[in-house]
Amino acid sequence: MAEKIKRPTFGRIARPGIGYHQGSRQMVTTVLSPVQFVNAIGEREEWDPLSGTGTNRREDKQHRRGIADYLAANADYVLNSILVYLSPDEAEFVADEPGAPVSLGTLYIDADAKMVVGDGGHRSSAYGDVIDAHRPLADEVFARMTANGQPVIVVLDDNQARRVQDFTDLQNNAKPLNQSVAQSMDRRELVNRMLLEAVIKAGDVPVFDNGNRVEFLTDSPGKLSAKIASYKTLRYASGTLLVGTGYRSTKAWAEAVDLLVSRDEEAAAEKVIAFWQGYSDLPPVAQALSVDRGVAILREDTWLTSANVMYALAAAVHNVTTGDAAITTPEAFAALGSFDFTRTATGLHGTLVDPPLTAGGNPKARTGRDAWESAAEVFTNVIVQSATTT
After folding, report:
1. pTM: predicted TM-score of the whole model, two decimal places
2. 159 and 300: one domain?
3. What's the pLDDT tens digit per position in 206-257?
4. 373 and 307 share one domain
5. Is 142 in the same domain as 184?
6. Which partner for 241 in 7, 198, 309, 314 could form a disulfide, CB atoms 3.0-4.6 Å apart?
7. Closest CA to 171 of 217, 125, 121
8. Where in the sequence is the domain holding 248, given as residue range(s)?
9. How confident is the model over 331-373, as pLDDT tens digits?
């Protein structure tokens, strides 16, 4: 069999890279500016199993827009590497140390070759959106796109079946952060900074115990956990206390909460602290905090550790303490102190709870916004009625 003749490197684009193998295939990690990268890639290829082409899933326009907004708004953004493919006929890696498992070297690419994006289609499209929007302005954002780098993993492989399998393997091996971890790590959002530093770690709220009773690593504490709730739950309840229930999208809710906190962070923190102090003073909660395994018993016997109940309480307290209402947060929780939150009670039937189907059966919790907003109306009525009779 005749030896394959190498194509001349003259006239090809040369890029420095680090060459290595994963299995039988030559891979090269290199870095391009976002502008260079967008110019070097071809059209997005969606997976078509009938023709066996493409590797990308259906485009999520909201996800693409979110990445573009992030890139444009944050000078210190970070994106991980994007996986692309070139045919071995279109590119060649020449190692500085031939035969070494990992070597610096030069990646030579045909000038007219277009990289095929295997994993990172939304990031690639978002880069294109930002560059197209800011190139005519030649502004600070476009300057970043020309000066910054984007790591790219180039796989020299033209086997479509292997490309598709790579995409599947990458998705199966990826584990996204749960919301409690991701939100507690995100200090760009003022609500997270305020909640973590001025509320949870401040030491004034018994139910938090300086953060020891907050579950940061999962979104749902276990049945026997001593944690009162996940950070995700506490964050959403705290934000709903501040802005109410008028925002239907997560993004609009987060923007409204951050705007309110930015106007007066101290006042916002005081209101959130007062709410969770009131929650801590509810008789079943106070009792649970005072004994071993108390929170596990509270979770077993009542609805009070339910995320939906916390959201409903926050919405109700927002309702009665906002505007011209003269009801304070301590007064609201004093009124709620007589409400029966046990799982056998009927006060939440038809809102957060479906009654038992048979005598002696167990009630079933409902989920969703409609359920906890209905429960918030029940709590609001309890508070208002108490205020009018005292």
Report:
1. 0.80
2. no
3. 999 999 999 999 999 999 999 999 999 999 999 999 999 999 888 899 999 9
4. yes
5. no
6. 314
7. 121
8. 179-388
9. 999 999 999 999 999 999 999 999 887 777 788 999 899 999 9
